[in-house]
Design brief:
Blueprint: H1 2-34, E1 38-46, H2 51-54, E2 56-65, E3 68-76, E4 81-87, E5 90-100, E6 106-117, E7 122-124, E8 128-132, E9 135-143, E10 156-163, E11 168-175, E12 198-203, E13 206-215, E14 225-233, E15 238-247
Parallel strand pairs: 1-7, 1-8, 9-15
Antiparallel strand pairs: 1-4, 2-3, 2-5, 5-6, 6-8, 9-12, 10-11, 10-13, 13-14, 14-15
Length: 257
């Protein structure tokens, strides 16, 4: 009996210390969640392809608020999904960028918007569908005579951007003297900030031909001036292009017909 009495008391303090430690741990975890320890499960797909087929190995997940990156997280492409932890409560644009092992340039990119995370909550974002990372053309034009648009009798232009296969990648109609309209507030658009002309963005990397036709008035059937230039678009870069406009020649073989 005395042996039992001498051995029983030490067991109680050990259990008490364990319970206290567990309580402190739970309290600490609860505080961490209250401080914004939410998480987002992010998954991705490369349309009709796989990581190996696309040569992609590394992924970067970026969370944007108001066009600014507030958190980044690295992952492996073959995992297909990753969890971004330590996320403050709020609404995010989730962007996933894919990289090949032998290049620092993005290979694929995609994003989903309106991903709302409650305080301390875990949510699953919609699957991010990745497309080839784009670049942009920064286009300007001038007249071979050195005249301004109004002195050349031109008020309106149409611009067509064609890839090397002759497929139209973009087309716009706009004033001959356009106002700058570069939108750099969206995620992934910071590379457009240095543009000085008319921007054609979200173009796949590769070669393009830019055709410009100038009209006296919007809606005219035939242009008065024309010009073209070639461009090479690279990932997340601006390709500056200048088109020199000359008077349309007469004849059945005129490029303005």
């Amino acid at each position: 009996m005395q042996g039992q009495l001498t051995m029983s008391p030490p067991a109680r303090p050990r259990l008490g210390r364990l319970a206290l430690a567990l309580a402190l741990l739970l309290l600490t975890l609860g505080c961490a969640e209250d401080e914004g320890g939410g998480a987002i499960d992010v998954s991705w797909s490369i349309g009709g392809s796989t990581c190996n087929q696309s040569g992609v190995s590394k992924m970067l997940v970026s969370l944007y608020v108001g066009g600014e990156v507030v958190k980044t997280h690295g992952a492996l492409c073959i995992d297909g999904t990753t969890r971004v932890s330590g996320v403050e409560a709020g609404t995010y644009v989730v962007e996933v960028t894919a990289y090949r092992a032998d290049s620092p340039d993005p290979a694929y990119v995609g994003q989903v918007s309106g991903v709302s995370v409650p305080k301390g909550g875990l949510i699953t974002a919609p699957e991010v569908e990745l497309e080839e990372a784009p670049g942009a053309i920064d286009l300007q034009w001038r007249f071979d005579t050195g005249q301004l648009c109004r002195f050349a009798g031109v008020s309106w232009v149409t611009v067509g951007v064609f890839d090397i296969a002759g497929r139209r990648a973009a087309q716009r109609e706009l004033p001959c003297d356009p106002e700058p309209e570069v939108a750099t507030g969206e995620p992934g658009s910071s590379y457009l900030a240095g543009a000085t002309g008319v921007v054609f963005d979200r173009l796949l990397p590769g070669g393009y031909t830019v055709n410009v036709f100038a009209f006296a008035e919007a809606g005219d059937a035939l242009p008065t001036h024309y010009g073209n230039a070639d461009a090479t678009v690279s990932v997340y870069k601006l390709a500056p292009v200048e088109v020199v406009l000359t008077a349309c020649p007469e004849g059945d073989d005129s490029p303005c017909l």
